[in-house]
Amino acid sequence: MPKEDSHQFKILLITGLVLFFAGCLLLILLPAHKSLIAVRCLGLLLLAIAGLRNRSLTFWIFFAMLVGLELGLDSPAFAVQLRVLSDIFLRLIKVIVAPLILGTLITGIAGHGDLRKVGRIGWKSFVYFEAVTTIALFLGVAAINLTKAGEGLAIPASTIAQPLPNSTPLRWTDFILHIFPENIVQSVAENQILQVAVFAILFAIALTRVPEQLQKPILNFAESLTQVMFRFTNVVMYFAPIGVGAAMAYTVGHMGIAVLVPLGKLLFTAYGALITFLLFVLLPIAVFGRIPLKRFLRAVAEPATIAFATSTSEAALPRAIECMEAFGVPRRIVAFVIPAGYSFNLDGSTLYLALASIFVAQAAGIHMTWPQQLVMVLTLMLTSKGVAGVPRAVLVVLLATSSTFHLPTEPIFVILGVDALIDMARTSVNVTGNCLASAVIARWENELAVPTPD
């Protein structure tokens, strides 16, 4: 982009953002005032003009999020109907995940044939995952103890009458068993990422033990499958702004802004803790690991934005793998680390689980000593590892934790009021953390193919 066009783009971008968010914030003082709609729409118009000067898919995804927010504010009934568009996008993405993991892992492991490297990448990944998620858990506990967001919260009577969902405690034996597939077709159909990854790893190891003439056809097929799925991802990404905007419109239209008022402290605590984690944990790790920050931020921007708007890590997985491979992480590393991280390195989710568990105790008026909180953190360290493969996983783990530590369940239903909005941030942090993990492991292996200077 020429220098003059770049300057004009920045002016339009900043002006548009200021107008739009000023119009949103003034809703607190002047709710439902029509002049604010005009201010926000003018901001969106300036952003659209800026987007025409810089045709970046990431920009248009972000712009679509703001348009979805505006639709949710102005026309909630219509916005709720747009959920079908976000569901279409999620379905198109989910159909990519299993074939992409199969193709990338098989070519990454069997294509190089060095099983010692695979084992080394495995143990390094799990050491990294355990260290970072443990920090996330303790940070979540520290944040909620600092703000005491749950204290003094009035629990509405309507939440007490709600039926409890299935809250069977997640036993570690069940999780271990759940890792291994009994039917690969069923695992693909149910999008069980970890099971597909385990099958692909074992299949690739077996493939290295057959004669070369028998390896080549399957390796060629796996490589072709991988390349086709990357192109498939590129095609689906053209629909991403529509799907992401519809997801945001549905969330705001369905929830409304009013729900933020009684739970604002919890919302700000969660966002503050997640931002702190990004700045004081992931950023130092990136600096210490000599990861080129500007290039990394550009690589992770699109997957993180998609994850934020859709609240679904799976929606960002294909793009995350493609972007990190383009960033310079070898295929065998990115294809192993990111799928494994979806079960063992969900930094945002583990932080939120620790925070929400203490919030439940505070809201119920139960004082937990530091040793009790430490035991809870150690419990969450195990139960949170299986959250990726369980529907409504965070809710299930929260309910299981509550029953284990004899906490009431009513505050959990209060949390559900803002859970969708917190889910956006924690999912985005999950994706960012997994992308960084792949880059750090690649640097640890001295195989990060990017220049060291930023």
Structural class: mainly alpha
Question: What sequence of helices (H) and strands (E) makes up the elements?
Answer: HHHHHHHHHHHHHHHHHHHH
Coarse morphology: globular
Task: Calculate the mean pLDDT score and round it.
Answer: 81
**In which range does the helix fraction lie?**
over 70%
Share of residues in strands? under 5%
- Our count of helices gives 20
Biggest sheet architecture = none
How many beta-strand elements?
0
Terminal CA distance = 20 Å
Radius of gyration: 23 Å
Low-pLDDT residue spans: 156-167
Give me the secondary-structure topology.
Elements lengths: L2 H23 L8 H20 L3 H18 L1 H6 L1 H28 L4 H33 L9 H4 L11 H8 L4 H6 L3 H15 L4 H26 L2 H16 L8 H25 L4 H18 L2 H15 L3 H14 L2 H17 L6 H14 L9 H12 L5 H35 L10
Helix pairs in contact: 1-2, 2-3, 3-12, 3-14, 5-10, 5-11, 5-12, 5-15, 5-16, 6-13, 6-16, 6-17, 6-18, 6-20, 13-17, 13-20, 14-15, 14-20, 15-16, 15-20, 16-20, 17-18, 17-19, 17-20
Summarize this structure briefly.
With 454 residues, the chain is mostly helical. The protein contains 20 helices and no strands.
Describe the structure.
The protein has 20 helices and no strands. With 454 residues, it is an all-alpha fold. About 3% of the residues have low confidence. The longest helix is centred in the last third of the chain and has 35 residues.
